[in-house]
Structures are given as structure tokens and as C-alpha cells.
Amino acid sequence: MPQPLPLILGLALLAAAPAAAETITDAEIRTLAARQAERLGAGDVDGYAATFAPGAVFTQQALGSNNAVVPYGQASLAEARVQLARTLARSQVRETVDVRAVVLSASGRGAALRAFVRTRVTTEGRVRESCAWRIAGVARIGGRLRTVSQTDTLVRCRGPA
Q: What pTM does this model have?
């Protein structure tokens, strides 16, 4: 799978972070992913947004039947927050995040997460399901662990929910 540019740029910035930053652990990354899914499921837009860096970049793309990546677009945290609030105003969203890998930077001040994500959106009794491979860059900012970039590559859902 191609490496998304926002993740690469995010990790490059993390490498230049001050040496005094506290080392990030695998368990913290997994806890952050679970907290994001929990806040999303609770419909907590503010709580969900607080787990991202102010300059976070969201990228959405799809993997075509010919295995080519088709870009859908990017959004800032502010743009993603507005769209999420619109969705949650009329729908219930549940996300299951299966973390497959956590890669810590050599300095321990940044990390990348790779996960398989299954999202169920229920609107007026109708359920829509989507699946994606997620790659997220994570850093400690202001003493809190936050996602700095997130790329979801939509794929066909396989198997039971």
C-alpha cells in the first residue's frame, strides 16, 4: 500500500520535535485508537476532535478493483469536525478499530498506527457499512497524545461485522 504524504510529512516533523518530549508507548497508541472510537460512538464531536492535533489532516481514498488507489480528498480538522457534526445530527456512527501494527519512531516521540476499520452508520433504521485500512501519525502535543494525520483507504468489507 502506498505511503500517504501527510503521514510522511507528519513523521518528519515529529523527528524534529524537542528532545524533552516523553516517549510514546504501543499501549498508549492503542488506547488512543479505542478512545477515538468510543467518543465517535457516543456522538461526542468535541471529545473526538480533541484527540487530534489542531493541524491534523484527514485523507480519504479508495482501493479500486484493479488495486489502484483513487483519491477522494483531504480535510482539515475544522472541516472534518463540521462534517462529523452534520452526520451525527441525523445518524448514529459506530467504528470498530482493529489495530494491526504500531510503529514507534526511533526517537520514541512519534508513531504510526495501521488498523482495519469497520464503520456502521445508522440513519432512520437504515444501516450503511464501510471498511478501510487506516494509517495514522501520532505525537504527544501539549502533554497529550494526538493524531496528526489520518489516511483511510476504503476497501470492500469482507466477512461478518
A: 0.84
